[in-house]
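Protocol step 4 of 6: structure prediction from sequence.
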Amino acid sequence: MNQAHLHMVFNHFPIIGLFFGIGILAIGIFKKHTILVNTAYVMFIFCMIMAKATMMTGEGAEEIVEEIGISHDIIHNHEEVAETFMKVLYVLGFLSILGLVANFKKHAKASIVSYVVLVLAIGAAVLSKSVGTSGGEIRHTEIRENANINNASTESNEEELDNDDH
């Protein structure tokens, strides 16, 4: 298994985990079930760890895909968005640890932490769309913004060749 393969395996956990964690946290806050809130916190910490693992395999993955002819600009765009996403996940993970400690100590401000974590997690989930899409564009050309333009020009070139009497 090479770095590119590991990168693709790891990168799904932070994105999908965020969505599950948000749902669990929202239900935990709504029903006032500390165990659900703590479960969401653990999920967010896991997301942070898996995002770090994803970042650690990113350079190796970049080298591999550049060797097969992928544009550095597309990779650089993904890298920039991923670095921002990672910073948000560091804060989310840290606040989740803080929330766990507050819940275990039954601190009066524990519920405030859960609301802050929920808002930050929703922001991270919105950002995860950009990270996932920019990463997917590296090898999935069909999801790039200019995919229709390229397909249309290819189709018109094929039509011209079919109509050519030579």
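Step 5 (inspection) to follow. DSSP finds six helices and no strands in the chain.
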